Amino acid sequence: MNKRLQILFLFLFCAGTANATKLKGHVYDKQTGEAIVGATVVLENPRRITNTGLDGTFEFKDVKVGAAKISVSYITYKTIEKTLVILKEDNDHLKFYMESDSKSLDDITIKSNVVSSTDQGARRLEKNAPQLMNIVSGRSIEISPDLTVANVMQRISGASIERNSNGDGQYAILRGMDKRYNYTLVNGVKIPSPDNKYRYVPLDLFPSDLLDRLEVYKTLTPNLEGDAIGGVINMVMKNAPGKFQVNANISTGYSQLFFDRKFTSYNASGINYKSPYEVNGKTYNATQSDFTKGTLDYKYKNPAPNLIGSLSLSKRFLDNKLGVVLAGSYQNTYRGSNSTFYNNSVVGVDPYAKITSKSYREYSEQQQRTGLHGKIDYVFNKDHQISLYNVYVNLKNQQVRDAVTTTYNGVYNPTAGNAELVYDTRSRLTEQQIYNSTLHGDHKFFNDKFKVQWSAVYSSAKNDVPDNTSISLNGVQQNFQSKRTSLVNTNPVTRRWERNTDEDLAGYLDLTYHVLAGEHKLDVMAGGLYRDKKRSGFFNNYNLAQGADHANDIYGVNFQNYTDLNLVVSNPTGAVANSLTYDATEQTTSGYGMFKYNSAKLEVIGGLRVEHTNQGYNLLFAAGESFPKGNQIYTDVLPSLTAKYFLTEKAQLHASYYKALNRPGFYEIVPGKVVNEEFQERGNPNLQRALADNFDLRYELFPGASEQLLIGAFYKRIKNPIEYTFQADAVRGQDIYYSPGNFGTANNYGAEVDYIKYFNKIGVKANYTYTHSRINTTKTTRVINSTTGDTEPANVNQERPLYGQSAHIANLSILFKDTKKGWDAQVAGAYTGPRINTVSQFLNNDFWQEGFVQVDASAEKRFKGGISVFVKANNILNTPTKLFIKGTNPANNDIKEDLVKNGKTLIRSDYYGQNYLVGFRYKFN
């Protein structure tokens, strides 16, 4: 009987299987032919639901043979409903083409940012862009581990980042060209930098969740400003779609660093943002009572958890004529680093540095990052519309640096003599902010044959470092085993104010005339720009020291806290008379003419841009400088030509030539000098702009949804590249300054591969860039005079890469996406090869940053009702930043700290710890 039942069950199973099959298909965008990721596919009778994968495919198993109803839906697209007959086989070639459901108003298309912020939209923009471009979509940013724009930059092909003191990205290096060779846009408009010396914008100011997408232009066309030898970074902010939208998130987390040690802080609420000189007048004599004691009152504790949140609201009103978007972001994080620095010097005839002391530093930083974005746009009709953008970002960084420097009888050798100790503590509050307001208009005339675009722009940037306080204690540890140390405040306590502002007024005008239409299209374009920039800098410094009757007071005996010190101001009127107190101006006038030709197989864009620059400075306190005023006036003619040849609908060749420049920074041409914490720095009034010829060739393939294969090569020939080196003063040779200079002609070339591929639920993003550059620098070495037998300096030329350039940069991200179950996850790794960190004046003494791999991860789970839970983890491997010198000095072999290895000497190592974050997200529409 059991055998009969088994046979019956087997027969019924086979009968059911004979009437069941698989149903497979693809969903595409009808207009572009690109696959749509995450579309909902519903099969009726019985009702079953699935979603398209990362390659736009879907699959139903065990489907009954016969007639069935199927529907496909996706946001911003019209729903497809079909009745089909399912066969026993050949059900894997179904294709559905979805049409856009964009809202129309008097023939004006109101495009939803839901599409433009997707990976599909990003690939489409890359394909159609006249420039060679890489884009990170808003959705990719949202689910990535990255919280700031700087950290997003490291995912882009050919880009690496420079870290700040807590390990986060701060500046971008594009194709081996240092951060000075790039400029930054917000919605296509250049923004000023809050930095007191340079033009480049610190990208860690910008929270990543304000962005619709991040664009990086690697080539220029004539309608773009010409000072981008490396490239252009454009932050496109959130837009107003047709539907009411809400996007909110809140999260919290912690840094592993503060599981292992305390966080050092002080009360910054009482800081005076103006120095006594500004408050009381230039003849006022300051006393200790004019300075708050809060910056010397340090607390050691565990920090509160990090708090991060953002909210964006957007909607269209008045029958979709008026669009409004408001977005805000706030991040309060506690970060830091543990750093070991080995000071070194070159002595005698030995070309390699000898370690003279060791400094151990602990950084504790509270960062409060605020971002606000608002946009209003009004559509009058299909030919006329205007918009008003406003962006404000602010970053407050409250930092304490605790350091102890150790020497033994003037050198670093822990086995010899008593330890000579210097304890340095610095409390510093830095506030940086950028504001941009842009009124923009789009107008069409004569049945769309003539187009006018204009922008009126006000921008400002500010950097404020009030009451930067440093204190040091000196002492001697009696022997290596003893922990008893007598600490005396013999060095002055310094109180320092630094502030600079930058204001831009600019106007843009772009005109386009359609000459030909149809199979052969020809547009002629012209336009221009005028920008008036005003910059001011302020610096003041006070030195306070104990009186003669307290000069030998011992910490822990005569005073228990730094706030107990009785100090006398040695320069009571301050030190405002220095070269960092100055005014600068710059007027930029530019015009361009260009054409754009299109046919079925070819697109060509070419033209000329002319830029006139008038850059000047005025030292408010000349302090004996030879050039208290100065300016540079020059005009540059910048041609460019871009061509795209369409091999197929999905493949094309993209070639480009453009000429570009790099202007000196504002303080770089000011001849005054300033004493920094570790070296003296001065400007160079003879510094010239750099000019470069740039060539690019790229094969571009866009095979499917969000997929691409980009293979390219580039070459840059740079005349008068600007680099910083340590240089001897022309008059007083014993004074060494860190100064900018021009260094002949440099060549920079390389190759890039950028690959994105999806396999249903699994995706791979990978890119690799090889860069090679060479520049000659004059270095100092020491030789023995054969006649006298004395050692004397000699200059030699040494070839090296450009500052900041890594030969090898790579990224690899593994993605997982299950739309049906609401999962998104990724593991992202970024590799940056060795690069020069500091250029020395001595032969073979440049500081190199060791190559490193950083691994981050993130995951998100979506639930019904628009609720999501996400986690992010950064720097999972706790990858340090390490600096080394290529070469060894035998005198360093006695230091038993593993400093000398494989022909290299370790100079510095910074550890930042891992960072963890968990949060909730809510989306409506």
TrEMBL record:
Domain Outer membrane protein beta-barrel, residue spans: 561-883
Primary site of residence: membrane
Pfam families linked to this entry: CarbopepD_reg_2, OMP_b-brl_3, Plug
SUPFAM superfamilies recorded: Carboxypeptidase regulatory domain-like, Porins
Topology within the bilayer: Multi-pass membrane protein
Keywords carried by this UniProt record: Cell outer membrane, Membrane, Signal, Transmembrane, Transmembrane beta strand, Transport
Keyword Electron transport: no
Domain called TonB-dependent receptor plug: residue spans: 127-232
Claim: Methyltransferase is one of the keywords in the record: no
Subcellular location(s) of the protein: Cell outer membrane
Signal sequence extent: 1-20
Domain of life, per lineage: Bacteria
Family statement: Belongs to the TonB-dependent receptor family.
PANTHER family: PLUG DOMAIN-CONTAINING PROTEIN, TONB-DEPENDENT RECEPTOR-LIKE BETA-BARREL DOMAIN-CONTAINING PROTEIN
Protein name, per record: Outer membrane beta-barrel protein
Lineage, broadest ranks: Bacteria, Pseudomonadati, Bacteroidota, Sphingobacteriia, Sphingobacteriales
